[in-house]
Write a structure and sequence with these properties.
Blueprint lengths: L2 H24 L28 E2 L5 E7 L4 E6 L4 E4 L5 E2 L8 E6 L5 E6 L8 E6 L4 E5 L3 E6 L6 E7 L2 E7 L5 E6 L7 E7 L2 E6 L9 E5 L4 E6 L9 E5 L4 E5 L5 E4 L5 E5 L8 E3 L3 E7 L10 H4 L7 E7 L5 E6 L8 E7 L2 E6 L4 E6 L1
Length: about 375
């Protein structure tokens, strides 16, 4: 090799080394805020790990689904008010005529019962009935319910009862009969309830980007309220979703902040992902989140999303909870588009509702 070629070769190696050092030292430090890759990486159209295409497993449009037992039976409330079991082939319907105008379903933690809210005559507040999957029977609740939550043991129901102009916190049995009157004349307005621990019930503002959300906890033993999150500009659109299966809470706000919390809403991890709490799930080792590839400007979250005014094309991220490393395992593309909500994970499978057709889908992980 001539002297000239040697000099050229050494020069090329020096340039490559300098570039490598600049890339290495120019990286952002790893940490909580750098868990997810950019929302629109160049390779976003292709999953980082090949995965099977999700398949629809429900025959009908679904408002809510839940997974029962080790057999992984998937039950759902359809948009026409029927309770059904999703199966390979034709679904099995557990009810005859559907309830009119169903608006929500709250499965019990043991998955054996479900409270269904439905509206009659365009009433503002829904009425409720309890469906027992074992006996395939309904039990109407006569109590006037503004907010409701299952106990962790599935044998009691906490209800914010409307009584004239007052609101009272009561505990009922599974027949809808009041067992215990906890607190009278509660001054909280437009609240959602969660009951993640036996001794504490959480209240948080109904999610809206127009309101500064706040979150309270009520200790059943001490009969005391404590404000855990105060309202501020940063809490607009506050949503908190408890996952008993994962032992984690998912918290999001209208500005795209997503965090993981414990049952007392203490922060465990914050993610730089523009997504909503209702688009995430977790198992013991990993977090799974549907993250929009892009979010239109000028929309209000979560309002426009919950009201069906906007749809997203999501990428599904898998984030290791220990190493905090994330990757795309499913990308919306021309072959399949997902706007995932209410994902649930069990035994290496991820179930979710695709908002494009409101059916339940199954993805083998």
């Amino acid at each position: 090799m001539t002297r000239k070629r040697i000099i050229i070769a050494l020069g090329a190696l020096l340039v490559i080394s300098i570039i490598g050092l600049l890339i290495y030292f120019g990286r952002k430090p790893s940490g909580i805020k750098q868990i997810l890759p950019p929302l629109q990486p160049k390779s976003a159209a292709k999953p980082a790990v090949p995965s099977a295409k999700p398949k629809a497993i429900s025959d009908k449009e679904v408002l809510k689904f839940w997974i029962a037992g080790e057999a992984e039976k998937v039950f759902y409330l359809s948009s026409d008010g029927q309770i059904a079991e999703a199966k390979e082939g034709a679904d099995t319907y557990l009810t005859g005529n559907g309830l009119p105008n169903p608006v929500l379903a709250l499965p019990s933690p043991d998955s054996e019962k479900v409270l269904v809210g439905f509206r009659l005559n365009d009433s503002y507040y829904p009425q409720f009935s309890l469906f027992n999957l074992t006996s395939a029977s309904w039990r109407p609740f006569e109590i006037a319910i503004e907010a409701v939550a299952w106990s962790p043991s599935s044998d009691e129901i906490a209800i914010l009862e409307r009584s004239g102009e007052n609101k009272n916190l009561v505990l009922t049995d599974l027949e809808g009969q009041i067992k215990r009157k906890i607190l009278k004349n509660i001054g909280l307005e437009d609240m959602v309830m969660e009951w993640p621990e036996p001794e504490a019930i959480l209240f948080y503002s109904k999610p809206s980007g127009f309101n500064e959300g706040e979150l309270w906890t009520f200790n059943l033993e001490r009969q005391t309220f404590e404000k855990l999150i105060a309202s501020s500009e940063k809490t607009a659109g506050l949503t908190w979703k408890w996952s008993a299966a994962a032992g984690l809470g998912f918290m999001s706000t209208g500005n795209g902040e997503l965090g993981l919390t414990d049952s007392k809403t203490r922060a465990i991890m914050t993610l730089s992902a523009n997504t909503l709490a209702d688009k995430c799930a977790a198992d013991e080792d990993n977090l799974y989140c549907f993250v929009p590839q892009s979010i239109p400007t000028g929309i209000v979250l979560p309002d426009d999303y919950l009201q069906g005014k906007v749809y997203f094309r999501d990428n599904l991220f898998k984030i290791n909870l220990e190493t905090r490393e994330g990757r795309i395992i499913l990308a919306s593309n021309e072959g399949f588009a997902a706007d995932g909500r209410d994902p649930q994970v069990m035994n290496g499978r991820l179930y979710f509702i695709n908002r494009y057709d409101d059916r339940v889908y199954l993805l083998d992980l």
